[in-house]
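Work package 3, deliverable 3.1, input record:
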Amino acid sequence: MTMLRVRDISVRFGGIVALDGVSLDLNRGEILGLIGPNGAGKTTLFNCISGVIRPDEGSMFFEGRSLRFAPPHERARRGIARTFQNLQLWGSMTVEENLTVPMDALGRRNTLSDALYLPFSAYAERASHERARAILHVLDLGRYANALAADLPAGIQRRVEIARALAMRPRLLLLDEPAAGLDAQETSRLADLLRAVRERFHVSMLLVDHDMSLVMRVCDYVYVLDFGKVLAKGRPSAIRNDSKVVAAYLGEESKEPSAQSNGAAAMTKSDAPLLEVTGLAAGYGHLEVVRDVNLTVRPGEVVACIGANGAGKTTTLRAISGMIRPRHGRVMFGGHDVTGSPAERISRLGLVHIPEGRGLFPRLSVEDTLRLVSNSTGHEVDLAPAFEHFPRLRERRRQAVGTLSGGEQQMVALARAILARPRLVMVDEMSQGLAPTVVRQLFEILRVFREQGIAVLLVEQFVESALNVADRAYVFEHGTIASEGSAAELRRNRKLVAGSYLGTAVDEPAAHANGNGHAKLDPDLLEVVSVKVPAGLKRALEDRAETDGRSAGAVVMDLLEKVER
Amino acid sequence: MTSRLMVRICVALIAFTVLARIPAGFDVGFQFDAALAVILGFGLLSLVLLTGYVGQVSLCQATFAGVGAYAAGMTASTFHVDYTVAIAVGVLAAFTLGVVVGLPALRLYGITLAIVTLGIALVFDRYVFQDRIFSWFTGGSGGWRVDSATVFGLQMDSSKHLMAAYIVLLALFCVVALLMVNLHSSGAGRRFRAIRDSELAAATMGVNLTRYKLLAFGLSAGIAGLGGSFYPLVAGSVSPQPFWVFTSLQLAAIAVLMGVRYVPAAFLGGAFMAFVPDVLTRFGHGTLFGRYSYDISYDWFQIVVGVLLIVQLILLPDGVWGDLRMRVMHARSAMQAVTRKRVRVA
Amino acid sequence: MSAFAAYTIIGLSLGGIFSLAALGIVLIYRTTGVLNLAHGTMGMFSTFVAWQVFYGWQHPGWPGWLKTAVAVGAGLAFAALLGLFLEFAVFRWVRTRPPVVKAVITIGVLLALQSTASLIWKNNQYHLPIYIAPQDATFVVADVPIGANYVVIVLASLGLAFGLAAFLRYTSFGRAMRAVSDSPVAASLWAVPVGKVGAVSWMLGSLIAAIAGILITPFINFDTTSLTLLILDALAAALIGGMVSLPLTVLGGFVLGLLETYPTIWIQSLGFPRLVALLVIIAVLIVRNPRGLRVAA
């Protein structure tokens, strides 16, 4: 039966179309994956389903009822639970308390009787806590029951979030980038956990993530979004080999020979590296996104960083330029140790960072923005060179930057590098959201940089374009560097690169093993049994189940049937 | 679990018996300060609930107390009933205002909520408490006079039976404090704290934000109003000055200083606010080394509070009590690690 | 009709004060992330300094305008120093904290400044206001006499607003300030000196608050608390501008001034205008606030 039916959802933010007529079906007992390149609209769709955003058009039905006017707590009541990418645990409470809140909230509890410790409240408290401990036990979190949620490492917090969502007895569990910040091992454990959860708790799941290894292992069915529309849908193995999907992630395979031989020749000068990063670790809050990154950039080189989203490329750049503080490691730029220095100081040393989103000032005009650039003596520079390279900007010099098109904005950001004559330019996802012709123009500018002796460190999702213009490249995976090499090498080995984006060929019979014999099982019976059975007996049941190769519920059913007779 | 409850009740009883005796040996002025300390303590308790537990910023707690005071005064003077009824009316009036203030607060957070509550404090201060239109409520420019009254059968007034008022106040304070501490570790308290720690998660996990936020505002205002209702009795009359916007700001400042999440901090703060200024005025004149005369007045107290608040927020975000508590907890867990005491997992 | 015109002028001058105060608040908020609840208090203190110089010193036979100029100058100089002091002693240490915390810090500043002023100048209300123009000078426009000081205020507000706008638009430091106010993170990536910008913003903000305070003295009971309480109206005007747009803030200030003055034709009340300001605040916040949940800061 179709549990979740999403029809023709459209969402617009100002002038940007985030979702354009997206439809999606989720069946009972399924684990559904939702993937797509950055900006494809996955998070927006996810937020619509969980109630955070209201769609402009379209409808959503959960178990036959419309979700149109249901606020988040109402959706919770109907059986939709979710986890959060950036971990929204209630840090001042223990793990066990975190789990009891949704249970209480969905029951009928009275504030006054709680305060007075009336017998009803005390009873309900005990029941909630027992049930919470049971769930924690199933997820192997029992030893953390009394730990403060804020003190736990990120991997454990993820599991606690899942446990908390399960405490609500949901029928549908929405997982928002559950693999964010986890390394390869933790991700594989997460995959096992999710499958076990589906089995034990009989929940369907909708999973959004960048991590292909997780999606491929866990999901029964996958939807791929791109530019706000459904690009493809099907079983994971089919999706992985779909040429459209590959193109959406990696860019079109280009047949032109790479015109970068001059780059290789110029590399004979083996001077001291301009940028040297050793053992870098960085993250946000509890998440550790970058674990151990080592890279170098030599003067005049063009180096690319490629790899899937969430692999740590952007975070690495941010830790280098001072936008965030590195937690470990060292960053040397031009002979200075700039680890943990403020961004202002680093940019004055000659490092220009063009972040995701371009780092511009929406209400300043083009001219005003460029006039912010001052040369080494502190005076303003002549703007002429910028307008030579970007004649379009000369026409629009008085226009506010926020009103320019994406391509023009990127031009403004690059124009700064032309004027400021830095030693290193770091560009993050230059081509994001831009049409291919514009992208080609912008990549030409990178050649201009090289001519002027400016080094470039480039983060780019579209592998083809990046390898076309770069001398060397680093491939990022799970927060560290999986491989590196010259651009020519990596171009030849396209399979290696594709694997890091779309998951290495772990051909598990992923979908088939799930769901056998479960369709007949009564989920409520399972619940009741897991609460009221003494722990010792429960464990015996589980051991028996393991030896038999079935689920504990099936074992119990068996026993009960025997009793009846 | 019930053992914890027993412990809390014992602590409350002990605190009550100890503190109830103290002012008896001093003069009326001191007794007045003691009663005022408890009234201010109610104001701080209300902040602990609203800001400490639920995370809603409010800069108008003194206004709620003032509404309680005026409502009680009006009831007692106009209807000549037992003062217990007046107190009930005061609490109810404050509760209602709290819920009303909570309504816009449903959509506002952090700074914007602070601005709106500040506005409410200002409007009540300058307009409602002072304007002629509201004289039916405020008793005109003189305010209500309450000369003597009976509460729970006890005779009390502002001159001869101040101790009685103080003891009743203290008893009520201990009861409310106890209820609040119970609330904190109860299911409802957890729902409140969930709203504070992550409103988004709370809503998606089934907590009805509207219901709980309005409840928090109402309860908090009611607590402040409870303290305020005693004010006419303790001071003899009501005027707008004690409930003006600066008192609200001071309450917020002291609550943050002492630790806005912890109930004991409320009591510390109340005592601080009531006694220190008076001590300063009494002993704050004199000569230093026989040559320099100094005169420390109430203003110095407020300067110190302001500066302390700034310094504390820069250095110690958790408040004095909060910091102490953190140190004790760390020491305790360090000791446990040393003696290998295992935490019991069910 | 003439009464209406008179009220309009009064409303506009009151609005001019609000605009000025609001401009200072928005400037500081955009460039440093601090919502300065002590804005009125700072202005009050500087105004008292000016008063002290004006009435406290013995000026041997100086002409009136010189006395005024020196007094005002002293007040402004103090204001600039106060702003700088606050930035260096307090706010540069808390740049990364959430906005609520920074706002509560300004409460501490408010309390400390308020009491210091009360200590020095006591809480009396008999202080005489400073007049920029002679007290009884009037213009006559279409048979309606308009007090000269009112006109001075309106002109000064507009002039300052334009001056600030010009500074922001045409000077290089103004550009830097606009950059920081648009996006502090991007500004630091562009090597814009964010710290310096913050310091200058505090200085300018304090100066503007002082000017507003000095100009308003003819109209209100001048004591240590009343100017502090102006913060509510200033916040209302700033919120009308969305805490972003300077022109809208100025417009908002004038509109608010009119909204607060017209009802006094019928309602004689000292406190009623405050109610108007509060209602405006609530209305603006509810209308502007996007629906949807936010993560706790």
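Residues 209-235 of chain B form the longest helix (27 residues).
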